[in-house]
Amino acid sequence: MRQQSHRYARPARLRRAAFALALAGIVTLAACSKKEAAAPAPRPVVAVAVHADGSATAAASLPGEVQARYSTPLSFRVGGKIIERRVRLGDVVKNGQIVARLDPADAQKNAASAQAQLDAAQHSLVYAKQQLDRDQAQAKENLIAPAQLEQTTNAYASAAAQRDQAAQQAALSKDQLQYTTLVADHAGVITAEQADTGQNVSAGQAVYNLAWSGDIDVVCDVPESALAALSVGQTAKVTLAALPGRSFNARVRELSPAADPQSRTYRAKLTLDNPGPDVRLGMTADIALSAPSPSDSSANSSADQSGSFTVPATALFHDGTQPAVWVVRAADNALELRRVTVTRYNERTIVIGQGLKDGERVVLQGVHTVTAGEKVHVIPPLHPEDFAS
Q1: Of 51, 148, 241, 362, which is the most exposed, with the fewest CB atoms less than 10 Å away?
Q2: What is the distance between the alpha carbons of residues 335 and 73, in angstroms, rounded to a whole number?
Q3: What residue spans in the chain does CATH classification 2.40.420.20 cover?
Q4: Taking every annotated instance into account, which residue ranges of this chain make up the domain Multidrug resistance protein MdtA-like C-terminal permuted SH3 (predicted)?
């Protein structure tokens, strides 16, 4: 009986051992599959290899606008109601031309009143003069007391002072009457209208804006990266979108010493040489400036400046406050954030002057969704012609 139970116990132990072995195998397989799932697949990114466009020492270009060198508002020196406007936006005016008028009724009354006071003061002065002459003649004959002569002399001096005061008041009223007529003090073009007929304006309120004839400037805002290529007295080439095929010489006349607090750019004004009548105010301009020469102190820097690269604006990222792009390393397909120098901002592209090498792959899209060191899988853009340099 004992031998039979021992014979039945051996298969049970074998079954338990086989079950434990199978369970250990399942756990091992699960652990292996979990370890394989922990390694993420490389993220696909849109990137292309960039090639130098051969313009490392080409001129950096900045957008600008044609403006008059001098521009002033035209305003009345007295307040009143506008009853007439003789020029409109875009009209050419001459020096001394009447451009607007105020209602002169009140000014005419003030001028008439001041003239009447002047006439009365003049009459009083004539009478005081005649009385003084008589008293002086009688005083020589000792026919009047000295005190009476003094009173007459004092009355004459007072009448003369009143006449002078009335004359100044009459002249002021006459000037104020003339101020109801707005006259252009320089030849130029009306570039803005700030008041309309029938409107009551105060003294000094702008009615028109006048751009003077003569020197014409091209105004542009220079970024920090292009500031080194600009200096007062430097020459530049200017092309206008409205006049294709033509270029104009310009000279830097003024460069702002401080950056604008909002845009962080420096305002530059260039004077055009012989612009001609075809150049109109407000035209958009493209200013070509000589780029700074590359430094000879570093061989690596010279290698980076072997050419400039034109890439889509969507590739631009920032490392802190500096412009940067994501570069896919050829060795391990990992991402590297590379600081670059942007020499030109176009409508849809940017021109990179330093920071890239020929043949490096730059991420074009999704630059805000990737991280440094991330493994990626490069795929070409869906429409390569949209990203062509």
Answers
A1: 241
A2: 56
A3: 46-57+294-387
A4: 310-367
User: How far is residue 86's CA from residue 184's CA, in Å, rounded to a whole number?
Assistant: 11
User: pTM value?
Assistant: 0.55
The dotted CATH code for 61-69+214-289 is 2.40.30.170
Positions of CATH 1.10.287.470 in the chain: 75-183
pLDDT (tens, 9 = 90+) of the chain, 389 residues, equals 444 544 545 555 656 655 555 555 555 555 555 444 555 688 888 888 888 764 433 445 789 999 999 999 999 999 999 999 999 999 999 999 999 999 999 999 999 999 999 999 999 999 999 999 999 999 898 888 999 999 999 999 999 999 999 999 999 999 999 999 999 999 999 999 999 999 999 999 999 999 999 889 999 998 887 787 788 988 889 999 899 888 999 999 999 999 999 888 999 999 999 888 889 999 999 988 754 444 433 334 443 444 688 888 899 999 888 999 999 998 898 999 999 998 888 878 888 988 898 889 999 988 988 889 899 988 888 765 555 54
What residues does CATH 2.40.30.170 cover in the chain?
A: 61-69+214-289
Residue 211, φ and ψ in degrees, nearest 5: -95, 120
Tokens of residue 189, six digits: 């073009």
How far, in Å, CA of 14 to CA of 24, rounded?
15
Which CATH code fits 75-183? 1.10.287.470
| Torsion, CA 303, CA 309, CA 315, CA 316, rounded to 10 | 70
Expressed in angstroms, the distance from the first to the final Cα of the chain is 95
Q: What whole-number distance in Å separates Cα of residue 334 and Cα of residue 371? A: 10
Distances (CA, A) of 341 to 113, 267, 352, 368: 72, 20, 6, 19
Fold held by 46-57+294-387: 2.40.420
